[in-house]
Write a structure and sequence with these properties.
Layout: H1 3-15, H2 21-33, H3 43-49, H4 58-77, H5 84-101, H6 111-115, E1 126-129, E2 135-138, E3 143-147, E4 153-158, E5 161-164, E6 175-180, E7 186-189, E8 195-198, E9 202-207, E10 216-227, E11 236-240, E12 243-247, E13 251-256, E14 262-269, E15 272-276, E16 287-289, E17 293-298, E18 304-308, H7 311-315, E19 321-328, H8 329-340, E20 343-346, H9 349-352, E21 355-361, H10 365-376, E22 380-383, E23 386-389
Helix pairs in contact: 1-2, 4-5
Length: 390
């Protein structure tokens, strides 16, 4: 696939608000590399590369306008460092792209009046996106009913847990998407009784109701522990981008953060099969894990390897632990950012590849940094949610 074809695909995803932060950076880097723009691509830049625009109706285009603005706001709060001027320009460009998409579908002059009624997120809320694209903020500690896109009650929220109704009748798949920001965790009980523990920085897309005769499939970005309800007639599949994890009923942990090189699956009980998402499951050919084993999928070469491990190390995050075992500091920094909702800028090049052993539980970030100061003698400053290490 040539570079231009790849960029066109990314632009389609970019416009539809489906790009990861890394993919957005790829688009921006492409335009800078080819001297097409200084910062973010303009509408004219987009039009020069993207030959065909996705077809959609007015309602869909209206939602994309709101979603792209939300994405821009979220980027400001992530570890990606964007100057304020660039961020403001991105909002302007995002709005322009939405208008470009909606030509002939609705008038530009009404767009901003519509936007006033849209939900603008701060980036640190737990959110639930319904099948029609509407986004609801999940306020922790509350006891409320959960409704679908038509207003029907499909479950209940009790504190930091949502339980979907096991008796709800449905003959059509409708997906909800639950997004957990950095610094928070959440629990979810699916309509089949499967329990899911969601770690910080995690997004899970799942059916409001599983359909008889079809696989029970969910889509994961981030980390989650699954306690899958047994159902031999309906395999449960976790899609972790290029990797599928297939089970019938078991306990296992999946870590699939976009910025990590590996997708890791740790089996606590039962059995799971690992296979590439573009393949059909075959028990005679695919990797099968036994309890106490870790299966790792290398995103660079699509190879799957397995080894025996202490599963407690990989599941202790559910109890608030933050363990590091022979881990490079650059990887530790990623985990700290997710756990504490901070941005870490490491200016100490020697520190990046240093390896550490440690285990923290419910400790403030200052105490964690003091540990590295004692071991390595690092110097750091903390301002708001930004940590600079020298």
């Amino acid at each position: 696939m040539n570079e231009n074809s790849e960029i066109q695909k990314l632009l389609n995803k970019f416009i539809l608000n489906q790009c990861t932060t890394e993919e957005i950076n790829t688009v921006v880097s492409y335009f800078k590399k080819n001297k097409l723009t200084n910062e973010f691509p303009t509408v004219e830049d987009i039009k020069s590369i993207l030959k065909e625009l996705p077809e959609m109706d007015a309602d869909t285009a209206d939602k994309i306008f709101s979603n792209v603005l939300v994405a821009a706001k979220e980027i400001e709060t992530t570890s990606v460092k964007i100057k304020k001027a660039s961020y403001l320009r991105y909002i302007a460009v995002a709005a322009s792209i939405a208008v470009l998409l909606s030509i002939g579908l609705f008038t530009y002059k009404n767009e901003f009046s519509k936007q006033e009624n849209k939900l603008i997120l701060k980036g640190d809320e737990i959110t639930l996106q319904l099948s029609n694209g509407d986004i609801q903020v999940i306020s922790e500690g509350k006891v409320v009913q959960v409704t679908d896109s038509k207003g029907n009650v499909v479950g209940n929220q009790n504190g930091n847990k949502i339980v979907y109704d096991t008796e709800a009748a449905s003959d059509k798949l409708a997906y909800n998407t639950l997004k957990i920001p950095y610094g928070k965790r959440f629990e979810l009980q699916l309509s089949d009784g499967t329990m899911v523990h969601l770690n910080s920085g995690t997004t899970l897309k799942y059916p409001v109701k599983f359909i008889a005769g079809q696989n029970r499939q969910v889509f994961l970005d981030g980390e989650a522990f699954f306690d899958v309800a047994k159902d031999k007639k309906h395999p449960f599949i976790v899609n972790a981008n290029d990797l599928n994890v297939r089970v019938l009923g078991t306990h296992f942990n999946v870590s699939n953060y976009p910025e990590d090189e590996l997708t890791e699956v740790v089996l606590v009980e039962g059995s799971v099969g690992l296979f590439k998402s573009n393949e059909t499951f075959d028990a005679t050919k695919n990797t099968l894990l036994k309890p106490g084993f870790l299966g790792s999928f290398n995103k660079n070469d699509s190879q799957i390897a397995s080894k025996e491990v202490n599963t407690n190390f990989y599941t202790s995050w559910m109890k608030g632990y933050l363990p590091f075992r022979n881990m490079k500091f650059k990887d530790i920094a990623k985990k700290l950012e997710r756990h504490y909702n901070v941005t870490i800028i490491n200016q100490n090049s020697k520190l990046a590849d240093e390896k550490f052993y440690a285990n923290f539980k419910d400790e403030p970030i200052e105490k964690v940094l003091s540990y590295f100061n004692e071991i390595h003698g690092i110097k750091y400053t903390i301002k708001n949610n930004q940590i600079i290490i020298k």
